[in-house]
Amino acid sequence: MNPIAPEDAAHVHGEVAAAAAMVVAELTARAATVATAESLTGGLVSAALTGVPGASVVVRGGVVSYSTEAKASVLGVDPDLLARAGAVDASVAEQMAAGTRAVLDADYGLATTGVAGPDPAEGKPVGRVFVAVAGLGTSRVQVLDLRGDRAQIRSQSVLAVLRLLGEMLDLPVGEEVDRSTG
Predict the structure, then answer these.
(1) Residue 4: is it exposed, middle or buried by C-beta count within 10 angstroms (0-12/13-18/19+)?
(2) What are the respective helix, strand and coil percentages of the chain, to the nearest 5?
(3) Tens digits of per-residue pLDDT, 55-97?
(4) I need a surface site. Which of 9, 45, 83, 113 has the fewest CB within 10 A?
């Protein structure tokens, strides 16, 4: 339940690949599909999923919604919520996941939003990340406070959202990336 220490970042890459392979295999077995909505990870979740052979059967696509405007116009995130809470928020992550699920007609939507650094943003500290998974009639959101440099925070975020999907699919997903603070 401890955060992944920066010195352990080399292990994260292998864990991301393993988690991606596990969820792709399970989605394939269930004939289910997945789509991504990414802000701070900028396409890394999609890259992890599509790096798995056979992923084309389950991956519908992804939206890199780096700007607040794209979150609202493409994914349907409530503009009033964005104005009030900013882009780094649990409800925003949840709406991003639901939005990509709807836009790309997928069974599951994954979302990442947060502050990778090097500087704080919107009053949120570096390492504050929200990951979300939306499925049929259900969603899960996790808040993370990650340590490390920009690349490490982004990698840990990818692992966290894949593990959150794994949990929703009732898979053995390994130990937590970080302690939930919310």
Answers:
(1) buried
(2) 45, 20, 35
(3) 999 999 999 999 999 999 999 999 999 999 999 999 999 999 9
(4) 83
Beta strands 34-38 and 59-64 are parallel
pLDDT recorded at residue 10: 65
95-118 average pLDDT score = 98
Percentage of residues in the chain having pLDDT higher than 70:
90
Q: What is the 3-state secondary structure (H, E, C) of 113-168?
A: EECCCCCCECCECCCEEEEEEEECCEEEEEEEECCCCHHHHHHHHHHHHHHHHHHH
CA distance 150 to 152: 6
Cβ(108)–Cβ(168) below 8 Å: yes
Residue 39: CB partners within 8 Å, gap ≥ 6?
64, 65, 66, 71, 87, 96, 111, 112, 113, 114
State how far the alpha carbon of 110 is from the alpha carbons of 38, 69, 131, 142, 168, in Å: 8, 19, 7, 12, 11
Sorted by where each begins, the domain ranges of the chain are 6-168
